[in-house]
Amino acid sequence: MIPLGPKADKATVRRHNLSLVLRTVHDAGEVTRARIATRAGLTRAAVSSLVEQLLECGFLTESGKTSSGQAGRPGTVLEVARTGPAGLGVEINVDYIAVCVVDLAGTDRVRLVEHADNRGVPPSQVLTRAARLAARALGSAAEQGLRPVGAHVAVPGLVTGGTVRQAPNLGWKRVAVEGPFARALSALRPAHRALPVSSDNEANAAALAELWYGAGTEGVRSFLYVSGEIGIGGALVLEGELLRGAHGFAGEIGHMVVDPEGPQCRCGARGCLEQYAGQAALLKAAGLDTEAGAPGVAELRRRAGRKDSAALAATERAGRHLGVVLSGVVNLFDPDAVMLGGVYRELAPWLAPAVDGELARRVVSGLWSEDRNRLRAASPLGDAARGAAGAVVREVLADPPAHAERAGA
Amino acid sequence: MIPLGPKADKATVRRHNLSLVLRTVHDAGEVTRARIATRAGLTRAAVSSLVEQLLECGFLTESGKTSSGQAGRPGTVLEVARTGPAGLGVEINVDYIAVCVVDLAGTDRVRLVEHADNRGVPPSQVLTRAARLAARALGSAAEQGLRPVGAHVAVPGLVTGGTVRQAPNLGWKRVAVEGPFARALSALRPAHRALPVSSDNEANAAALAELWYGAGTEGVRSFLYVSGEIGIGGALVLEGELLRGAHGFAGEIGHMVVDPEGPQCRCGARGCLEQYAGQAALLKAAGLDTEAGAPGVAELRRRAGRKDSAALAATERAGRHLGVVLSGVVNLFDPDAVMLGGVYRELAPWLAPAVDGELARRVVSGLWSEDRNRLRAASPLGDAARGAAGAVVREVLADPPAHAERAGA
């Protein structure tokens, strides 16, 4: 109840304040030293010294502009560096791999996507494939003067301590991710052989991208992110924080039960939502090849667009099942909004009315329909690779000195 | 992201430190001034002055004992006062009203329960009934030298801003609680006419009782509390904090869907869990009168105890449905434990195996069965009235000076 930590020493305080100043500039976009002092509650002298160090290490730049918007002499405007430290994000999904390099300001400066069926492929091969794409991204980043200080790998499965405990749709079970990826990458780019690698669940990374960079989450502090892919990923953000759960496995909405006696799911249980509203179930109901992947979803979208009755029935049915489950989640968590990501984003025009209908009928507060726009399509930029890269950037913002050397400034 | 509050002035710091010292004593049970100084990171002089004020206002007492367990001179042992400031908790449920007075140490010193069918009774009459019971509790509290500084009323429904938005099982819709209760109470006990009244959902209060006073939650930081009554209440505690949700309506597990086409629920939707595992559904399946209330549940328990087949089938069926829904909740938020409260606590020996079976089958991490004892019967003391009283006590601990006058010390 009472935090009783040891007293902070001078070095710790300076470290904390370096982060405070860097985050103040990050959040403000462009800002003078005087304004930083006001916002951060520090003296001008302290801010000058902290800014000096952040400029030297390449975390900040002076834009050359001056601002006289405030009392006193005009000041030079500072912003976070657009070169130097950055984050590398990798998303390994069932039918594609995406990598992203995000700079300190949160802009995605490199983005590469490779479509490939990763099912049934040995995990080591998939990780090598991802490392190859990441190596190419590091090359493009270097050309732009960016130097990622860490890589973060997102996988659609239960990820803990650097290991994928299980990812049924990839067919992975107890697969170590971080070490093999780091080795494959450093073989390709020896200059990055010391790059720290971390890992997380894909839906978590996508939800964080939505929180940090998504247009749909302005003013939204608590939301459910649900992402239709081969499986169905989910993540809960509560008061601006991702809910991880006691073992790091929170958010598994794809295995909430539609019918206890329903079809067998890859997780071992029966009647999971995935079997009713996952990509394969959607394609099957529309009379399409269940293994058709992204082109299949594009075809479903086209057919729904021209009012093909099987396509409309398929999206409506999936939407109803999704809506019933989401109603339960909304009754449990009472979020500000529900974000539809992955293929649900693309299919939202046909899926959303059925989802919304169930929510209106089943959310007990009766508030669902009063607040318009609570069911939203996720931002197209808010994807897992970007969120993963953003996680590295957040670490830099939280403790710049720890990353000063690696940023190579 | 960065808290940029105004600088704390001297009075604010003292106020904060008074709470810090009081909470340190509260958490420690018995403690010397020297030990408080170490734990709270304050100087001995500061602690002496703060303790002096807390003693004067009646928040602390000196036990007379001395302790020489540490270096230096032996010190007098302090503890929180067992007289003076206290909390009054009121639980209005469908077939009973309970009131509880809890002292600063968390002990329930007065506890009164009145069985009464509150369904269909005008809310004003029910609130008057509750006020009468509360008045009796205040009398007993006064005899013990306790003076509640606030009342907190828990109702099984959606409660926000002092109003029950809806409580389908009581038949309440848009009922103001705090004002009418305060007026009824002050008519009976004019000495308490300025007593502040607050309100909350019943399952929230019960979950907080479990968190603060329950034996089952030791070492548990995140749990789901599910309480079978006429309805089914639920509350989520995450990292020691109750999840309230964007509108204060989180935890409505009773309206998660078992079958979208199932029986009509009082909430207006169909196939809610309440219709399969609520008290009436349990009694009906066992061949008992669905309106029999607490005596009906006692009879069900007796019959299950002597292996009556209808009773066993009824608890097994309800347990399976409850287990399917709880699996979804565990997949979503990955808690340390699930606590069965209300009638589920009493029926746990017959209900829990079926619940546990579904959890073992459906929790995707596969971790459910590895961690033993994750499904627990709630502590019998962890009830809503005690949690409601505890909420008042927490307010006192958080800001003692604000309650000094009312405590009448």
From TrEMBL, chains A, B:
It comes from the Bacteria. InterPro entries: ATPase_NBD, ROK, WH-like_DNA-bd_sf, WH_DNA-bd_sf. Belongs to the ROK (NagC/XylR) family. This is Transcriptional regulator. The lineage of its organism: Bacteria, Bacillati, Actinomycetota, Actinomycetes, Kitasatosporales.
